[in-house]
């Protein structure tokens, strides 16, 4: 099913002139740990232009809060400790 969806997306992208093979938040589906690290880089690149905004910290806090809503307490603690290092 996923392969069919990816092929459909690629066909649509080609039809509308988007470059395929280029990884973006819209077309990148992470599978391995390495992929998830790369996905995090893509997210970081998307957010970084807003660093100078007064509301940037609010954005980061809200993103983390939304991303962590279903995590176990131990996992949330691990993430919190990795951020404070």
TrEMBL record:
It comes from the Eukaryota. Keywords: Cytoplasm, Initiation factor, Protein biosynthesis. GO terms for molecular function: translation initiation factor activity. Pfam families: eIF3_subunit. GO terms for cellular component: eukaryotic translation initiation factor 3 complex. This is Uncharacterized protein. It comes from Pinus radiata (Monterey pine).
């Amino acid at each position: 099913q996923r392969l069919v969806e990816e092929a459909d997306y690629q066909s649509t992208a080609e039809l509308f002139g988007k470059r395929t093979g280029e990884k973006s938040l819209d077309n990148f589906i992470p599978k391995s740990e390495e992929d998830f690290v790369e996905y995090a880089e893509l997210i970081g690149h998307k957010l970084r232009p807003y660093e100078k905004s007064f509301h940037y910290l609010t954005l980061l806090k809200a993103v983390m809060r939304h991303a962590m809503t279903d995590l176990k307490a131990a996992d949330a603690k691990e993430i919190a400790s990795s951020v404070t290092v």
